[in-house]
């Protein structure tokens, strides 16, 4: 019997509604104040109430993930309709899923409270590049994770400029600040949703696939909309910049990516591949080497000029360049050096119980940094032949950076998955992207803690990811039971399965 499941839209919508309800007690809950306290429902954020909230939240994640998989199987991966119709259906379904999350509380991360805190520091005359949040006590500080209260910010001047603007607008009202950041995140997400299918179309790819995998993906919805990470704006700007470059508007494209760099330095990874796009275009009229040198020089000067302008206009400084690795205290196996350090420590401690994890981690992070730089150069050189290869190389370069980086968090992958579906990759790459998306979706709790060291949980998640990915790409799972309405097996059926004849005697 083939399993019959409900349609994607209501399934995902139920998930989003459950996420909305569960976010206030099972998400990145407030330490003081908030909606629950105002409604005298704060018991939902601790004790048994928190348990109920977490069950509701996880049910929402499951329903949203199921809706996404069904949407992909029925309409995208098996091509049940015309290209335009499928793209429109994916887009409409995605935005309906997002609607209940607009008033939801922050989920899967407390970073938005740090954004507000850093903006308040700029507003009040402090320097987030040299001082931690603890220098400016107030309502925002109470919501910042204890891990970050004495840590400087690694983000660029645009990030601080936005935060300063938000806190000047709302004052010290945390809830209002969160809602403004939700609007900013949605605007960034909308830019991604607008640009990614157009990038796919410009490359001769499938816009519906690009939208489904790169934007309607639960990782994107949960972390860009639910978590309100500044990756939403950064990836939105990079996506718009790459689209402009594909249409030979290189000055505008580089300017957009440079603005993204002033928000978060990660955006700069896309710029060397823009040089290939420009070189391919101008090499029709100039010698290839000359086109490469001129476009590279112009792109570099323009990037520096734009970042310098944003820095000056924001009243910030260049201190962020020395603080880019400031969050290296985060440990999880998404970053290869952290994963390898845990294995090395486990092996070495068999013979030396005094060996420390941090000793291995420090060495492996240095080795990993060299490997990352080498990998970025290799990928950049290998993916230079045409526009499709250049954007595929951009996605791969981001992946190389995140694998070898000292710290990797789930929302970082927004830079990768937004491009994977747009570049017409082979099916094994699509399968890997879908499976990895499922794993990342299920590896983090509503509060932002991860389950990556929970062996049994992650084993189940990997098995589920394998099965769901296989099913999404067309495999039907059947059981030993008869299909509805089928007649029970009769004598004729049983005749085909006669018991074995008695065994003949054999000499011993």
Automatic annotation (TrEMBL):
InterPro entries: MptA-like, MptA/B-like. It is found in: Membrane. Keywords: Glycosyltransferase, Membrane, Transferase, Transmembrane, Transmembrane helix. It comes from the Bacteria. Residues 482-508 are annotated as: Disordered. The chain crosses the membrane at residues 49-71, 92-109, 178-196, 208-230, 250-277, 289-314, 363-383, 395-416, 428-447, 453-473. The keyword Hydrolase does not apply. Its main location: membrane. Residues 494-508 have a biased composition (Basic and acidic residues). Residues 482-491 have a biased composition (Pro residues). It is a multi-pass membrane protein. Belongs to the MptA/B family. This is Alpha-(1->6)-mannopyranosyltransferase A. It comes from Corynebacterium nasicanis. The lineage of its organism: Bacteria, Bacillati, Actinomycetota, Actinomycetes, Mycobacteriales.
């Amino acid at each position: 019997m083939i399993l019959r499941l409900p349609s994607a839209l209501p399934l995902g919508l139920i998930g989003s509604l459950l996420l909305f309800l569960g976010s206030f007690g099972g998400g990145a809950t407030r330490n003081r104040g908030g909606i629950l306290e105002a409604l005298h429902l704060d018991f939902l954020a601790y004790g048994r109430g928190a348990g109920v909230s977490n069950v509701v939240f996880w049910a929402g994640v499951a329903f949203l993930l199921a809706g996404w998989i069904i949407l992909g199987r029925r309409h995208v991966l098996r091509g049940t309709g015309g290209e335009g119709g499928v793209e429109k259906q994916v887009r409409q379904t995605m935005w309906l899923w997002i609607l209940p999350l607009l008033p939801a509380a922050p989920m899967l991360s407390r970073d938005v409270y740090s954004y507000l805190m850093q903006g308040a520091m700029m507003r009040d005359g402090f320097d987030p590049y040299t001082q931690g949040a603890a220098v400016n006590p107030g309502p925002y500080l109470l919501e910042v994770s204890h891990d970050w209260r004495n840590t400087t910010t690694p983000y660029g001047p645009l990030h601080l400029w936005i935060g300063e603007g938000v806190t000047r607008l709302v004052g010290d009202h945390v809830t209002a600040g969160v809602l403004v950041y939700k609007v900013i995140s949605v605007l960034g997400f909308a830019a991604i949703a607008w640009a990614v299918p157009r990038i796919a179309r410009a490359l001769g790819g499938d816009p519906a696939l690009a939208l489904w995998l790169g934007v309607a993906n639960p990782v994107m919805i949960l972390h860009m909309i639910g978590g309100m990470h500044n990756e939403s704006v950064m990836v939105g700007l990079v996506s718009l910049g790459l689209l402009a470059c594909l249409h030979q508007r290189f000055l505008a494209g580089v300017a957009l990516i440079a603005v993204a760099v002033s928000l978060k330095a990660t955006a700069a990874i896309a710029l060397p591949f823009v040089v290939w796009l420009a070189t391919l275009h101008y090499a029709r009229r100039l010698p290839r080497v000359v086109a490469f040198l001129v476009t590279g020089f112009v792109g570099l000067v323009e990037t520096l000029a734009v970042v310098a302008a944003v820095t000056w206009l924001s009243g910030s400084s260049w201190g962020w360049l020395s603080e880019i690795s400031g969050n290296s205290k985060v440990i999880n196996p998404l970053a290869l050096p952290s994963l390898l350090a845990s294995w090395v420590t486990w092996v070495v401690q068999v013979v030396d119980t005094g060996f420390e994890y941090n000793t291995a981690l420090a060495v492996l992070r240095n080795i990993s940094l060299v490997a990352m730089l080498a990998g970025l150069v290799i990928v950049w050189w290998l993916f230079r032949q045409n526009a499709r290869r250049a954007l595929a190389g951009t996605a791969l370069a981001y992946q190389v950076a995140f694998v070898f980086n000292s710290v990797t968090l789930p929302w970082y992958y927004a830079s990768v998955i937004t491009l994977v579906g747009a570049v017409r990759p082979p099916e094994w790459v699509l399968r890997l992207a879908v499976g990895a998306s499922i794993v990342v979706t299920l590896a983090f709790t509503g509060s932002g803690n991860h389950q990556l060291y929970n062996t049994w949980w992650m084993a189940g998640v990997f098995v589920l990811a394998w099965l769901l990915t296989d099913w999404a790409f067309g495999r039907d799972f059947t059981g030993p039971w008869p299909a509805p309405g089928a007649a029970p097996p009769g004598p004729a059926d049983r005749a085909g399965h006669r018991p074995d004849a008695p065994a003949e005697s054999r000499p011993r």
